[in-house]
């Protein structure tokens, strides 16, 4: 009997542990919070909040104005010497690889600064110029309010932590917003060719 009770208890613990692991890993599909976030976005795409931005030209842009187009979004700050440099270079490459849908307005590239106090329109314009980015199809902008910035960071799952040296530590990805204004896909940074191929499959 003691052996039987031990076996039953062990079986119950294994079953419970497996259930917990299944829930914690999203049915064994996700072993990191980032992977879980990407799966959640694909299952239930969140709407992008209505936020007012100021662009590199000083113009005001309501994110709802981009409805009807696909939008590739990244989050940067112009003083960054790591991820943001890589992302800027990738967006410049995407201007070439996706030139046709950018030119006819089916697609927009949008870089959003999470350092709006420092990143004035002049700094935003200089950031894009650093990569020889052209006017058509690539907008660099900053939120006009702290609340708007926080809404965007929450929706897009961007974590920003001051590094105590005047900069920030942050995660990086290229995020896809569909013409209905929903975040539908999160793509890895570092492979603009794969991003371009994914978008060619989605664009009409």
Describe, in plain words, how this protein is organized in 3D:
Belongs to the SCO1/2 family. GO terms for molecular function: metal ion binding. With 204 residues, this protein is α+β, with helices and mostly antiparallel strands. The chain folds into 2 domains: 2-31; 43-202, Glutaredoxin, CATH 3.40.30.10. The protein has helices spanning 2-24, 33-43, 83-97, 99-103, 121-130, 146-156, 192-202; strands at 52-55, 60-62, 70-76, 107-113, 138-143, 160-162, 168-170, 174-177, 183-187. The strands form 2 sheets. Strands 2-1-5-4-3-8-9 form a 7-stranded mixed β-sheet. Strands 6-7 form a two-stranded antiparallel sheet. The radius of gyration is 21 Å and the shape is globular.
Number of strands: 9
Radius of gyration in whole Å, from Cα? 21 Å
- Unreliable segments (pLDDT under 50, ≥5 consecutive)? 1-30
Backbone structural class: alpha+beta
Helix and strand string, N-terminal first?
A: HHEEEHHEHEHEEEEH
User: What strand order characterises the main sheet?
Assistant: 2-1-5-4-3-8-9
Q: How much of the residues is beta strand, in percent?
A: 15-25%
Judging by the overall fold, what is the CATH architecture of the largest domain? 3-Layer(aba) Sandwich
* Highest-level CATH class of the largest domain: Alpha Beta
Distance between the termini: 68 Å
Q: How much helical structure, as a percent, in the residues?
A: 40-55%
Enter the CATH topology name of the largest domain.
Glutaredoxin
The overall pLDDT average reads 85
Largest sheet: 7 strands, mixed
> Quick one: overall form?
globular
Tell me the CATH superfamily of the largest domain.
Answer: Glutaredoxin
């Amino acid at each position: 009997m003691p052996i039987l009770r031990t076996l039953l208890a062990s079986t119950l613990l294994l079953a419970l542990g497996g259930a917990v692991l299944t829930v914690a890993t999203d049915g064994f599909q996700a072993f990191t919070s980032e992977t879980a976030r990407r799966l959640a976005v694909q299952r239930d795409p969140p709407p992008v909040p209505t936020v007012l931005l100021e662009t590199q030209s000083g113009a005001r842009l309501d994110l709802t104005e981009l409805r009807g187009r696909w939008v590739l979004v990244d989050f940067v700050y112009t003083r960054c010497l790591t991820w943001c440099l890589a992302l800027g270079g990738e967006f410049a490459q995407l201007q070439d690889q996706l030139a046709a849908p950018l030119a006819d307005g089916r697609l927009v590239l949008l870089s959003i600064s999470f350092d709006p106090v420092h990143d004035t329109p002049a700094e935003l314009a200089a950031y894009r110029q650093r990569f020889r980015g052209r006017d058509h199809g690539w907008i660099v902008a900053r939120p006009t309010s702290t609340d708007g910035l926080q809404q965007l960071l929450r929706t897009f799952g961007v974590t920003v932590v001051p590094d105590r040296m005047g900069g920030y530590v942050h995660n990086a990805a290229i995020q896809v917003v569909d013409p209905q204004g929903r975040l539908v896909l999160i793509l890895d940074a570092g492979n603009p060719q794969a991003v371009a191929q994914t978008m060619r499959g989605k664009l009409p």
